[in-house]
Amino acid sequence: MTFDDLFDLGLFSGPSYSQISHDRYDVYVNQNYIGQKSLLTAQESVQDIDDFLRNEGYSNFQTFIDGDHYYINAVGNEHEVANVLNVYLQNR
């Protein structure tokens, strides 16, 4: 059986495959890997990280998604943001 046969059998078709391919994101702060954000429910989003940071008092950052990578560009407080996110990602 080849890899293409798996698609022909329908094992990788439909909505379940697309959700599996985006259920986990590698999170980076200023190009440094921090951890993974897993989306456990349909209501969760990787942008929940933005809300968490704002609730923690951080607002001087920008974010963008590239595939399954979530990049956070923190200005002036990179180490604090990285430490807070490290704890947040370990507790999720």
Structure description:
It is a single chain. With 92 residues, the chain is of the alpha+beta class. Helices cover 37% and strands 27% of the residues. The chain has helices spanning 3-8, 15-20, 48-55, 78-91, and strands spanning 24-29, 32-38, 61-66, 69-74. A four-stranded mixed sheet has the order 2-1-4-3, covered by helices on one side. A hairpin with a 2-residue loop joins strand 3 (61-66) and strand 4. 12% of the residues are buried.
Q: Briefly, what is this?
A:
The chain has 92 residues and is of the alpha+beta class.
The number of strands is 4
What would you call the structural class? alpha+beta
Question: How would you sum up the major sheet?
Answer: 4 strands, mixed
Give helix and strand order, one letter per element, not per position.
HHEEHEEH
Mean pLDDT: 82
Our Rg estimate from Cα atoms comes to 16 Å
Low-confidence stretches: 9-22
Percentage of helical residues?
A: 25-40%
The strands making up the biggest β-sheet line up spatially as: 2-1-4-3
Q: Report the portion of residues in β strands.
A: 25-35%
Helix tally equals 4
- How does the overall form come out from the CA principal axes? globular
| Intertermini distance | 38 Å
How are the elements arranged and paired?
Layout: H1 3-8, H2 15-20, E1 24-29, E2 32-38, H3 48-55, E3 61-66, E4 69-74, H4 78-91
Parallel strand pairs: 1-4
Antiparallel strand pairs: 1-2, 3-4
